[in-house]
Description:
two-stranded antiparallel ribbon, alpha/beta, 325 residues, 47% helix
Amino acid sequence: MERGQTFFPSAGPPEGDFVAQLDEIARTELREDEQVRNQSLARMREWIAKNGRIRRCRTDDRFLLRFLRVKKFSIPGACEMLEKYLMIRQTYPRWFARLDPDDGDLRAVLDACCLLPIGRDPATGRIVVFGVVRNFNAQRFNSDMMIRLNMLVAEALLDEEPNQIAGFTHIFDNGGMTMAHVTCWTLENLAGYLRSVINAVPVRLKENHFVSVPTFAAQISKYCLSFASDKLRSRIHCHTTVEQLRAAIPGELLPREYGGKGQTLGELNARFRDYLMSKRKTLLALDDMEIDMRDPREVATHEEAASGELVADGAIGSFRQLSID
C-alpha cells in the first residue's frame, strides 16, 4: 500500500497533496525520514530476533511502524510498548482474541452503529471515529464487548499508514445513554482498560470530543480522567450540545443525522463493514503472535541476557544510543 493510500479519504479537498501532508507530519511530529525509518525497522527486527521471550510476532514494516511512530522512533520505547502489547493480548484474551468482524456478537454491535470511522479531517489528515453510546445494547452486552469493539476498530484502522502518522480524532455522542451503560463496566475492566490497554495499544489519539454527557456520568468521567496524563487531558473537549460539536468539527465530516454534509451513519457503517471484511484474515492472524509471560527478571532465555543486553523493562541496552527522543 502506498503511504497516502487509504480506504477513508479526506472529507473534502485537502490542503495540498495528502502524501505531502503526511510527509510533513512524519518529519515534524515523529522525527521520521527514510534513513531513520529503515534503520529503526532493522534494529527493531534484530531486537525481536534476540528477545528470548517473544516466540512469534509480526515483523512487517506496517506492523512495527505502529510502535515506532507512536514513540517518535525511540527504539527502546517502541520495543517496550511492543512487549506490553503482546502481553496485554495474552492477559486479556476476552478483549483481543478472535477479533472477527463476522462473529455474531461483534456483527451485532457493529451493525448498531456503535463505533465507526466517518471520514478524514482534511485540515489535519486524521481519521475521525464516531461513537454513539446509546446504540450499544448494555442490556445484552457488558464492557468486555465494548472493549472488544474498540480493539477491533483500532486494530483494523492501524493497518493503514495514514492513520499511524496523522493519528485519530474520537467523537462520542453520550446523549440518551443510560445507567446501564455505566454499570456494565466492572472496576476490574475499567482499571485494566485505563491502566493497561491505553498504554499498550499504539494509537496516536490527538483529540477526544464528548457530546451531551449526562450528569450521572460525571463522577465516572472524573475517575477515568484521574488515570489520564496531562497531555491526554488537554486533548479532551466536552460539548453540551450537538450544536457546539458542529462548531468544532468540519460539517463535511459529520453524519447527516448530526446536521453535517456527510453520509448517514448507516451508509458509513456499510462502507466500514466492507473494509473490516477485507481485513478479516489480518485481524485473525494477530492471534498467532505469542510471548512468554514469565517475569523476564526471573527467567532470561537468550544468551544476550547474560551479557546484560536484556534489561527488565524489555529494552535492549545496546539500542539506547539509537533513541531519537
